[in-house]
Target: F-box domain-containing protein
Amino acid sequence: MLARDPWVPHALGSDEKIGIRRECAKLLVSFLRQEAYIKQLRLRPASDATERERHNIEIHECEANSVKTYISYQLIYWRTFRLNDLPMEILSNIIRYIVWSAPSPPIGISWRLQLTWVSRHLRHAAISDSTLWNAIWFRDDPPFERSLAFVERSGISPLDLRINDTETRKFTDQEVCALLKALTPHLHHIRMLIILLDNWEPILSVLKWLSDHGKNGNPPLMMERFEIHRTGNPYIWPGLVYRGERFDPVNHDVSLYSLFGGIYIPELKSFTMNGVYIDWANTPSLDNLNTLDLRRIPLELCPPLPRFRQILASSPMLTKLSLDGAGPAGNPTSTQNYSAIDLPHLHTLVLANFAAPFTRSIVAHFTAPNVKDLTIMNFRGENYGPFYEFMIGRFRNIKILTLYTTNCPPDILPTVIKWLDSMPLLTYARLAALEYDILQAFLFDPDTMQAHPALQPQMRTSFGMVEEFTFNEVTAPLQEALDDADREPRLPNPRLNILEVQNIRPQIFAKFIGARKICGIPVKKTYIAKAMISSFNGPLLEYIRQHIEGLMIVDVGAKTQEEEELLNEP
Model:
């Protein structure tokens, strides 16, 4: 066949083109005939097992030949496709589909480069399209020649930049300063800027760079998304003592900068600050945000409570609020002088790493009846009962719940049960680093506050179930439920049928899904992190497969199809 002939790149002559097209026609006809024959074979009855087996073998062989024929056709057909005759706008669209369908950023970088190596025509088409080069991840080593070449090729199109240390090396302050100097002529048309650096010195250089731009009367910024993450030790801060030593950044006498030099950026919609602080008093107004993400900031360096409330009040279209060990400074427990701010479009709420006294009061500063995705992370070691009691009925439209490194002492278990029961639409639960103590809350009848009667004593013992509680007005069982002997028992979250699990002991996970199935509300699908799947032995994995219809593997941080669908539901 022609597809097996050795081939050296060259311009095809007219005779070669005719031969290739004839060969393509023959292969296509052969493929269609093979497919028709396979359909006939599938309809042919078999009189006994021996004939059925021979019949299946013939079908398998025909299918293999059909696939080979089709692949040969595809290989040959594209040799004569008139790619160079396509209008430039169509060719550019094809190239964009190729580049933006890359499964990961590193592969996307390789594909963009490889397209410029195919031919002069494709190189011209790729380089002349500035939108192919405006999304840049600085993954090459300093002085970042490849990435800066992408910046030049992007022309004046809006830039989406990501600058971060690699696993093998941390960028020095000098290297980052040189990069920022090269980016200065393009700063005014950066649309997205994501910074992830380990050390304080380059972080401060970035903040100074942005502040100086605003103070020096430069063209206004068009930035829509700004993220700055200091990925180093969260306990090291300029001017503070850590482990007996005061930390002072090298060559940085100033460590407090106003964001953007105090210049208001009306286009800014997404703001993330992680392990970094700014001069909130002189920072421009942050309003009309759709994302506010504050993480790992000491309380005294967070935005003052009035400023925090001003950001929320001036962002009525806020869709995501993430507070991870950071929130309003001052004393947020004093809420009696403030009315709750309405956030009707808030769909995603993340609460993590807060001391128990602050959790309830922070949530009290706003109402968000349409939250669909709630994350509770690292709430353990203290009494979070008042927080969970305050949350009862506050977010009734939750469909996705993430519980990460969260425990449930026996004295707050009734409160947690009532809280779970107040989210009747919960369908998808992401569970990570949990123990029996909080998972048992999913196995109690919220009306009687008793373990589901279908659970056998051995199962109750494995969960360490405690059924003698001290109740209050909120958690007390319903007397009519206790008196009705014919009443059908129920569980919290009757729609919960999809789990995503990470870093949970296999035995705990297996018993949990077994218990939910025994109680009549089985888990239908589970996504398991890759790192966790290797910890399952054969019998345990078989037990899980018997209790779950679908078992899938997922990368940590990746969104599943069901998660996307639930978030997009009205």
In short: The chain has a mean pLDDT of 91. The radius of gyration is 30 Å. The chain is about 40% helix and 15% strand.
